[in-house]
Every structure is written in structure tokens, then in C-alpha cells.
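I am writing to request your help with a piece of structural work I have in hand. I set the record out below, with my sincere thanks for your time.
___
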Amino acid sequence: MTRVCPTIIDLKFDEESIKGLERIAELQNSSKLGTSFIGIGQLLSIVGGLFVPSSSAGTAKIVTGRIASATSNKVADILDSSFKAISSDMGQTSYAVHTSNWEIFFDAMGGFDKISLSLIEREAMEQAMKHSSNPKQYQFWNALQAGCKPNAK
């Protein structure tokens, strides 16, 4: 059940609360990044295979060369180079899709959200305890720890 956040008039955050909000934002970004990497890894294992077949050892050199020579540290550039170097035939891709352990994949994807939510609840609980002498900040952190959502119905 989603709880509606309370209306707190004239809520002002102190420095410790602002740091707490920054930590929560960092946790959310880390969770998004983690799920992105899991998804990219799964896609690479399906499209490129878990390994480059021995019959195309030259491809392995091309892949490592392209990754090593990428002029930018951007993940997109590296992935683009990798996808261009590694190509698999339709049969290999179909087999990779069929044999992938999707249950573990989806558990891993959901795991980031569960861990992130747990850490956010912990941060909110710690902030509520730190702000027990400030009723408005305490109410905010206590509501966040209890799982309130803005504009929930």
C-alpha cells in the first residue's frame, strides 16, 4: 500500500538533511547504473556470445584492439566498437536467447531496486533519528522511511 506524503509547510532542510538527500539521489543513480550494466551484459552475451568462438580468433584481437583504442572513455563508444566487431549468426543468437537463464537475470535486475530501497529506508530512518528535535524534518524523514509517495492515490 502506498502512503500519501504529508503536507509540511515551511520545511527547511539543514546541512545534514541536504547531505542525506544527496546520498539518496546517489543511491538511486547507482541502482539505475547497475541495472543498465546488467542489461548491457545480458545483451552482449546474447548478441556476441559469452566467448568469441575459436574459429574467429582474429575477431578477438579486433574486439580487444577496438576497446583498447577507443579514443573516448564513453561506454557507448566501447559498446559500439564491440557490437561492430562481434557479430553472431542467427542460429547462435537464437540458441543464446533460448539457453539464457532469464530467472537469474530478472532476479538480478530486481535486486538493485530492493537493495536501493532498503538503503534509502535506512538513510531516512537515520535522518529521522537525527532530527527528532526538529518536528518538520522529523515528519518528512519519518514519512519517507514509511514509504510515502508524492501524489499517491
Observations:
- The chain has six helices and two strands.
